[in-house]
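The records we work with from here on pair a chain with its fold. These numbers are not coordinates but entries in a learned vocabulary of local backbone shapes. To see the layout at work, look at the sequence and tokens printed below.
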Amino acid sequence: MCSQPLKTRLLAWARRLKRDGVALWFAARDRRTPWAVRALCAIVVGYALSPIDLIPDFIPVLGFVDDALLLPALIWLAIRLMPPALMAECRERAEAWLQAGGAKPKSRAGAAAIVALWLAALGGFAWWWAASY
């Protein structure tokens, strides 16, 4: 059995996830980050910081899938693709930034991308519906 209660472990995991999200925010702006990883970091961070979800939370069960599964999986992938020394440096910067009480970053571009995806999906559905009748 684990010596720590589940609640303590979940809170520690959530703090690490938050720190890693901020670290990826720094990595997306660092020129030493490979371009493909930088693009993935920008997508992950843009989505994480977007006030709009791809799957709205009010949809039963599915609404929380992106928050509980998709986002942690994308953060894990971005971390695995990042050069380890650079990721360690970005984590240190993120930790210092969080300790200093840095303002939560926001992503208007991420929100715009989600709105564009929803509009494209609605447009595709409208085109399909019009073509089938």
